[in-house]
Structure formats: structure tokens, C-alpha cells
Amino acid sequence: MVAIAKSKKTSNSELFSDVSILRRKWQAALKPGRNLPFFEDVMLGSLGRLADHVMLIKDETAQFRVSRAGRYVEQWLETEVWDTALDAFPPDCAMVLSEAVANARRSRQPHLAAAHCVRDGLVQIYDILALPVASRWGGTMTSIYVNQRGAQYSLLDAVFSAADDGILSLATIRDADGQPADFQIVHLNQGTARLLKLPPGELRWHRLSAGTHALCSPQVFQRLCAAVKGGVSEQFEVSDHDSTLKISAAPVGDLLSLSLTDVTDLKRREQSFRLLFDSNPMPMWVFDVETRRFRNVNDAAISHYGYDRDRFLSMELQDLWPRDEWEEHSRALVGVGEVYNSGRNWRHLKADGSEIEVLTFGRRVSFEGRDSFLVSAVDITERRKAEARIAYMAHHDGLTNLANRVMFQERLRHDLERSRLVNKCVAVLCIDLDLFKNVNDSFGHHTGDKLLTLVAERLAADARQDNLVARLGGDEFAMILGGDLSPNEVSARAIQIIETLSEPYQIDGLEAVIGASIGIAISPGDGDTGEELLRNADMALYRAKSEGGGVHRFFEKEMDRHAQMRRDMEIDLRRALATGEFQLHYQPLVDLAQDRIVAFEALLRWHHPVKGMVSPADFIPVAEDIGLIVPLGEWVLREACMQAAAWPSDIKVAVNLSPAQFRSRSLTQTVFSALAQSGLSPLRLELEITESIFLADSEANLATLHQLRDFGVRISMDDFGTGYSSLSYLRSFPFDKIKIDRSFVRDLAERPDCAAIVRAISSLGRSLNISTTAEGVETMDQLDRLRDEGCTEVQGFLFSAARPASEIAALLGKFGDHATKAA
Length: 823
Description:
39% helix; single chain; 6-stranded antiparallel β-sheet
């Protein structure tokens, strides 16, 4: 895995990135007179969708320890990391995080680093932002944000392994000032180990500053720094007491691709070439300085170039050169002194007409009384192909070969600059696949990857010459439409793309059918920059998805207003939990046989200090999206148990659980803790779930439900009858109660089918010894019909709306032992 590099430069493309947002958030939270902002001021307003990417590190007795981490971080580290010391992680991960934390704390400023992770021959770059923050209880903590940058690319291990030369990759490690401070070997072939005379295990992941081999000299460090800073290739030699290496360093961002060529033999042959010339495995020849004709050639050159000896000796130098390089070759030979080292790569022609790329080295000698040059050629064709492949993968998606996000943003920026000069427009289409997750979950990632490849082929085939298609990640694609198309023409293209992608796909004998939704933004009306266009096209895509998918939508200013409202609600929600703006109201459940209240359902309410009561239908989906639903659900559970403990001992409390609480895998611990702290008997707690709990990881969820039920907690299925497989779930788990959805109760008098469904559910409940509760009871007629159909319990406005906990005693006093008569 890994090396770290820091950069202080912020490009336009990073303006709206999570890293930029977190940096601005940190700066805004820094109060006058303080060295560091408080953790709560920085992070409580920046979690939500970022929570999975964040880990919190505390300094305990000079040891860095992770106190908590999101799921994305655990996936990156491939382990659960909560309450774990950094030195317990694999050494590469521990080093990355330790360096980032140390730099942030030393500078007392946010520190942006890059981790270059190498797994299975693939390189993936991750941004790591370390934010030093103060704890209100004293001491310093560091919040680490981790996220993938761009797409992974291959290091072409097969090519590297087959190469005779040493080929390796170095990652730049930058100091707190953003300057190259060291280099780390992240990949190498056997040739490298042979040339550096060390086993691969003693080279890989080690820094040059800690080594003793030929690459550890100050001369090499200076040349490598020059390559990284200048962004240009460097070629130089390094020698020790018994060998000389030719080094070529090509930068790709903060990653250096190095090739090592052993030229020791060449140097020695310069002293005694007559003895070693013929048997040298490197192609060599001698040419006459005046006539440029070949005077001698060794067996390696004959074998490598394919000319026989007589043909070689009848040729001139220019016969090896492609015609378009004659002039450059000739200029390079003018004024050559005693020694010639190739300053660039040259193209040579072989006897079969193919071209190779070579580096050439020469020394002036006297051959048979004539002023001549001894030349050796190093074939670097395969190495150049590997370098070209690395450069290609830096701008292309490894799975589909489409452009990646980096190339998409560069092309969009270029097209916008050109469009402004000619007063034309550029359209951006964000394309998201409908139902792709179903295919991926049902048939596996292998099938999902094949489907993405087929989608990419259709998009590429449908694109015109002036269009660019890119895969931005997952099942999200994007397209740039040039040619100054009108909105109607863009709309027609979008319809055509949706139709193309909706045609069936044949994958390993399976037929997969998906669809697509498209969001569109057009310059200059929808944005002058690539970031604005992409963001606004993504808003339009969100609208298309929210309308059921399979359609395209253009960006509208109103979407930006709604997005701002959504962002405001996210900020308010995060504050609301911390400032105690949430409260619980309770609606009674009446047992028809006993004719009295036997339980209350806890319902979450939000009283906004400015907006007043906010509907759960508005804020619950947002809380789910930003990752607040789990802590919010835990608060509801604790508060409901605490308040119910003060009620009469025969009154139960019902609490709804969300699917997200099951995914957190700490549900049983949360329930047991809430019961223990409140002193409430488990027999008085009912947990209501929906059938969506069973749609993912059902075996684990069933195990959790069995744990809770064995403890004495009652389990109820909410909204029964609205799902397509509810009956199968009754067979999977012994529920204590099923709740009949209010939609059947509402139309009970008008629709005979609703009465039949209620009757069937009640009968099913009696047969399985499961209680049945009818929701949404508002009239006496509905109550009478439900009693006739055999329902066990009822709940609704006929008895009471949901009321605060302070009114529970009054409700119980009002209804007494005859609840239905009081209603």
C-alpha cells in the first residue's frame, strides 16, 4: 500500500470537493485566541454522507488510537478499527495515518496527504485529510477524512516481470510544507531486486532515506525531486565501486516510474571493447565519423535488428533511422565530443520494417586507423509501452476503458473555454442506471462488471466524434455533447440514450434488463464552469430518479433552491439532536377484548426553534440520507424506555426500528443498554419493524431478532399486507404482533376487498397465535367493523392523536377501563 504527499494548491475542480468543504469548515470554526477549533464545531456540521469516510484519532499516552471510524474507512483498511491503536494496523496503513496525524499536529493546520495503495497489481490513490481539533475535555484529537481519488490503474505486473531492466514505482512523500522529503518504493520487478542486489522484501515499501543501495545517494534524490517538481522525465547515471546504472524517471503526478538499466558492462567495454565487443549481449556497432558507414557490428545487433552481417556492413547510419527523424539524428551527431550519451529516446528501423525505441551510448575510438564511434543500443520499447499504459490508465476507467473523472473534467474545461470564444454552448449529461443494483445484488459483482462494460460499449457506439463519454464511478456515467445543440436536440439525444440502454443485455446466458435516468445542464445558462455544470446536471438527475427513473430532466433554478433547502435542513438536523429539539409523542393502542389502553407507540417529533413543528415525512428521509437515523433511533429507544418506566407496570411502549439500525450491527447492545439504564422490563418493550429488514442480509437480521425475542422483547411487523412477501416472513420469524396497514382500514366501509383482507389477516393472526393491531382508526363504524372481523387491538385518532409524555397520565385517567366508550 502506500506513500504520502501533500499539496497546498487548490484547483477549480476541488472548489466544491469534500476536502475543500472540510478545510473551510475547520477554518470557520477556529475562534480568535485559540490555536485549534473544537471537534464539535468542525465535525458535527460536516458528518452525514461524510461520516462513513471519517475516523477520529485520540492521543493516549503518546500512542495514537482510533476511537471510531466509518464503514468506508473500515473497507479501506479491510478490518474493523474502532478503539484500535494505529500500530496494530498493517505497517503501510499505520505509517500513512501516523504521518498525516503527526504533520497536522505539528503544523496545527489541516494536512492533505495522498495514499497510494497497491493491491493485486492495481494502484488506487486516496485523499487523506487530517484535521487537528481540540477536545472540550482537554487534549488534542485528529479527525481523518479518507476518500478515493480517480480510478485505479494497473502497473502491468506481467510486463514488469518479463522485462530484463529494473522497473519500479516510487511514491513521493512530502513534508508539511509540501516539498518532496523522501521517496518510497511501492512496486518493483525482479530485475530491480537483481540490480540493487537486495531481496524484493527488503526494498518494497521501504524509503530511500532508510536504504543503502544505489538509489539512496543524495545525487539520485536531487534528480528525483527535479523530476517531480518539473513534471518532466529525468535520465542520469549512478555508479558505485563495481557497477553503473542508467536511470530513467518519468513522473505521473506524485508517482515516479523508474527504469534501471545496468550499463556497467558498457563502461568496461569502453576500455577494452575489442575483447568484449563480439560477445556482448547488447547490440553494438562501430561507425565511421566521416562517412557514417558501419565498420563493425556485433552478433547481438545482427540478431536484434534482423539484418545479416554483410547487409549491416553495407549500410549507413541513416538506414536505421525513420525518414522523419533523419534531420534530428544528423543534428545530434554534429559537434559530438569524446563521449555521447543519448539525451532522448530514438526510433530505429529493424529489417522487417518494424520500429523500436532505443537509448544509445557512444565513445570516440580509433578503429583500423579511422576516426570512429563505438555505439551500444538499449531497446526500451517494452518499457515505453508500459509507461504509455500507465499514462493511459491515469485518464481512463480500468473496467470500461472510458474516460475517467479526471479526463472528463479536463475535457469539459477545454470545451467550455473553446465554446466561449465562438459563443456556443456545451451540454453535460449525467447518466445513472436504473435497476443496476438489483442485477449486481442478485447475480454478483462479476455479472455487474460485465453489464457495466456492455453499457459502456453502447454509450461509446452512440457517441459522436465531438462527444466524450466517461464513467464517473459505480453505475454513474457522463457525456459531453458538443456541436452547439439546441435543447430539443439534446432532449432527443437523451431519449435515444435511454432507449439504447434499456434494450436487454445477454450476459453468460442470462438476460438482464435495466434502464437509465439522465440529468442535463447546458452552458452558459446552467453554469460557466465544469464544476457548476456537473453539479447542476447531477441535481437534474436526482429529479429524474425521484420521478421513478427512465426519464431525462433539464436543470432548473428551482432545483438549486430545493438543494439549498435540503442543505439547510441537514445543518438544522445535526444541530437539533445536540440541542434537544426532538421530543417523543405517544399514541395509545387499545385492546378490544379488555376495552382499555394496553400500550403507547412512541412517535418522533421535531420542534424547530424557528419553523415550529417539522413533519416526520420531511425530516426522516433526510436523516436517513445523511447518516443521522441511527443515533436518532438510539435516542428514541433510550428516551421511550426511560419515560415508559414511569407508567403503570401493565402498559407497554412500542418503538419503531429502521433498517439502518440493523445495518449498524449494534442494535442488541443498544436495546439491552436502554432497558438496563431505564429499569424497564423487556416484557414491556415492543419493537416494530418493516419487511424491508428482510431484504438485505436477512440471516444476520433474523439472528438479531431472535436475540431480542429470547431476551423477552416483543417483535411486531408494521404495515403488514403492503409487501409482496410478507407471508414468507411470518414463516421465517415468530412475530408477536402484526399491524394492519392504515390503507386497508381507511377504505373498510367502501371497499369489500379491504374488509376481506382485514378478515384474512385477523384469521391468520388467530391461527398463528399472533396479535393483530389495526392502524388509522378514525370512526366508530371502522371500530365496529374491526371488532367484528376479530382484530385484537386498534389505534388511531378515534381515541387520541399522539400526545406528549406529560399527558400520558391524563389519557389513562380519561379512558380508564372502558377505552372504546370514552372514545
